Sequence to fold (386 residues):
Amino acid sequence: MEKEVYLDNSATTKCFPEAAELMNRIYLTDYGNPSSMHHKGVVAENYIRGAKQTFADILKCSPRNIYFTSCGTESDNLALIGAARANHRAGKHLITTKIEHPAILETMKFLQSEGYEVTYLDVDENGRVDPAAVYDAVRDDTILVSVMHTNNEIGALEPVAQIGEAVKRKNPGTLFHVDAVQGFGKALIHPKKMHIDLLSASGHKIHSPKGVGLLYIGDGVKIQNIIYGGGQQNGMRSGTENVAGIAAMALSAKKLYDQLDEDRERLYSLKQFFIEKVTKLDGVHVNGLQGTDSAPHVISLSFEGVRAEVLLHALEEKGIYVSAGSACASNHPHISDTLLAIHTKEELLDSTLRFSTSVLTTKEELQYTSDALQELIPFLRKYTRQ
Ligand code: PLP
Fold:
């Protein structure tokens, strides 16, 4: 078999075999509709009940706080549009940051077109939002603040607990939403302790299938549903639940959280190993912070004098899969909002690749990738200069 090194885990991950097997069982045997009253329906409903309990244990909340959606994007849409519509009498001002995923930025743009006002906060050179800046931006009419847990392009970790505290200190009525699509499964997140009212996560980023997402909605948080239909999930999200996806996402989440400390340690040491190797080459820059001040699984590197797309395909020739910027945005090419926000030098904007690892990544794979870079970079630079 040809060598394959998958380093695009922030785009999506390989399913855990146990998760795929569970889905298979649900598709072929336990395929009932959870709303049906007969035995097959009850079996399906039990998978959902079990999954809710698993997520409640992980997030230290009640199962009634867990809602399932079709993806992280839908969870973000439900949180933002749902909160805006349910709370517009209290105000029409929302706050977010300049480095959010398009699932947030495009939804905010939509809300602006509906008459809401949105403040986009700056970040520092490492992509971090200052909680004091959030405090200053919150007003009497601010109904929601949305800040991501982990940035998908450079792996910046946002100080969400301090931001949550700042939001509530300034205006206890303002809701706090966290897009944790990149952070869930990689870090402990306790919404209540961190003053988080709404939290989004996605199945396919944590070794379960595409097509399933989660939204945590805190007790007493007012949200208006955005999908209408049969009234499933207390009317918050109509539509027959993706039982197989939900059960698989819970299984993968439990597996990740059961061994979180060991995996985090290993991922940080892999990250350090890889950075040490590749920065031996001249003109290679790491974007954002390193070590435990950054996400364990995201490594953003800029290569002077090399076009990202050319390097991406040269690595692909060697069986190595990486990403130029964020895969989710690559269908509509534009300069990365995150790289612009952290004031990346103009000549490096088009020379940046993201290497993202997972619990399945090995040191040997990173050694192979670093060897490939040592070989390709001087060659491509010579080629680019000609
Ligand atoms: N938010 C962040 C930070 C992401 O990285 C992504 C996907 O990359 C999303 C939201 C969207 O998630 P999904 O692909 O499940 O819609």
